[in-house]
Design goal:
2 copies of one chain form a homodimer. Chain A is of the alpha/beta class. The first copy, chain A, folds into 2 domains: about 5-125 and about 305-315, 2-Layer Sandwich (Nucleotidyltransferase, domain 5), CATH 3.30.420.40; about 130-300, ATPase, nucleotide binding domain (Nucleotidyltransferase, domain 5), CATH 3.30.420.40. Chain A is built from 10 helices and 13 strands.
């Protein structure tokens, strides 16, 4: 089938992941390489183009089989201009016309997308949202990324910045966020925030089985909090529950804003499974209105770290 | 011009407003009649059909000139089914197939829409939003209604309930709302809430020049609070400012959710003009992030009480 395949590239600060997808969004070949971000944009873009060639070969295809390449990358960026304005984890990536540079090197049509949007579109095309038309995704990692699919299309907004749901304010006057706001969702419910809030409480003198590890430093993360809450640590339970509460509150606001069929949670924190989803659902039931039966379904992402690759490939098709 | 006109009907608990619009969304005839809601749905629907005939005649047109009729009505309702599920201010309006009943009586195509959506679409088509593609509107009345226009289309959501922004939660665990939630935007920033919060504070013993009037009862409303804050009353100033703060917080969340070009404020409270908009803008500047230049413009609605009629007429065309 000529041009029946697309390629998705997921550009991260440490690694670049790539995959070839068929028309049913199945990955037929995959490859992951180091970003080598410290060597600057030219080097990184050349590596991405090289990865495209590797993937075509690995899938046993030729360039003529490839309809296009989608690149999911950190932002802020412009989808319409194909430009990365500024990527904090990628040194030198300031006003880089990544789409056109990749198109020159690969001689294929290239589309550039925000990585959170790409991951959301992946779950929509082939994962938790494959049976719905409208879906909002929250990716719970270092921060909280968002993606919004309405009527089968990614909604990007007037400024290509729609779905920055980690920066909706859930606590007026709350915890300061590096974005300049206070009380952003991601300051309460990202994987990073969960660990950080435990550390702050321990530093303020709250007792916890996590005391030594939390104070020791870098090794300490949300997995430790998850384990400690399972073992009955009161501080870990409170912080974990508050994260679930704020995710539920965000889901209520998503319900009344977009009114989607489905809200999907993705990212590192969902390794907790039902300990996350069950508690978010319980808070959501308690927080949400009773006057109309329009609650979205809440679900966990199913594609894991392949969502960004598959989504970028799907966007190269759409 | 055959079928160059559409009719918009704005169904309220007290009055029914109607208008004939040309293709540029100009009102060429208008009429307002009593709803006589206490006489039940059959009577009200017959009055609406009669109003359509009156409007056609008043505009000097015939039915052949009318492409369709749009009806904006209170909900909950289903646009796709053309059905009002339950309208608290219209006795007997429970599961009423209003669209099809009106189509039978008028022999014209009829579309049914949520009144807040119709008003938002009116401002989009012919008012504050006529030069943008993406717009979110908040109508500050007894409650707070919302409407969302994305890419030139009304966004209704998977359950026809999108844009219920008055019920986004702005204060976790905050003021109880009849909807069953706590801390809804409309419990802080509707015209009703502004007066109610002053009354509650006075009842709790806070000093205010509004004391006597607030305790006297029904006559007391947001206009009194506006006048008192202009005269320097400290309580009125605080409550008014908090309303503006929460509207600004809602605007931040709209920014990061829909990322529209424009947020429009409508409804009775905007008679305050700059005393509302200026303060909302100041809070918005202080609350919103500094890492991307994607703030929507904030503006007041321009069509007043005609927005619902014009919007319903515009929806009959789209």
């Amino acid at each position: 089938m000529a041009r029946g395949y697309t390629i998705g590239i997921d550009l991260g600060g440490t690694n670049i992941k790539g995959g070839v997808c068929d028309a049913e969004y199945r990955l037929v070949a995959q490859e992951e390489i180091e970003t080598q971000a410290d060597r600057g944009p030219d080097h990184v873009i050349a590596r991405m183009a090289g990865l495209v060639a590797t993937l075509i070969s690995k899938a046993g295809l030729s360039a003529a089989d490839i309809a296009g390449v989608g690149v999911g990358a950190p932002g802020p960026m412009s989808h319409s201009a194909g430009m990365i304005y500024h990527a904090p984890n990628l040194p030198g990536f300031v006003n880089v016309p990544l789409r056109d540079r990749m198109a020159e090197l690969t001689r294929l049509p290239v589309t550039l997308e925000n990585d959170a949007n790409a991951a959301a579109f992946g779950e929509f095309a082939a994962g938790a949202g494959k049976d719905v038309r409208d879906m909002v995704m929250l990716t719970l990692g270092t921060g909280i990324g968002g993606g919004v699919v309405l009527g089968g299309q990614l909604w990007r907004g007037a400024f290509d910045n729609a779905g920055e749901l980690g920066h909706t304010i859930v606590v007026p006057g709350g915890r300061p966020c590096p974005c300049g706001q206070k009380g952003c969702l991601e300051r309460y419910a990202s994987a990073h925030a969960v660990a950080e809030r435990v550390r702050e409480a321990v530093q303020a003198g709250e007792p916890s089985s996590l005391r030594a590890k939390a104070l020791a430093g870098d090794d300490f993360d949300a997995r430790d909090v998850l384990a400690a809450q399972a073992a009955g640590d009161a501080l870990a339970r409170r912080i974990w529950d508050e994260a679930c509460f704020h995710l539920a509150l965000a889901a209520v606001n998503i319900q009344h804003s977009f009114n989607p069929e489905l809200v999907v949670f993705a990212g590192g924190l969902i390794r907790a499974g039902e300990v996350l989803l069950g508690r978010v659902r319980a808070h959501f039931e308690a927080l949400s209105w009773t006057i109309a039966p329009d609650r979205p379904r809440l679900a966990l992402a199913t594609l894991g770290t392949d969502a960004g690759t598959i989504g970028a490939a799907a966007l190269a098709r759409s």
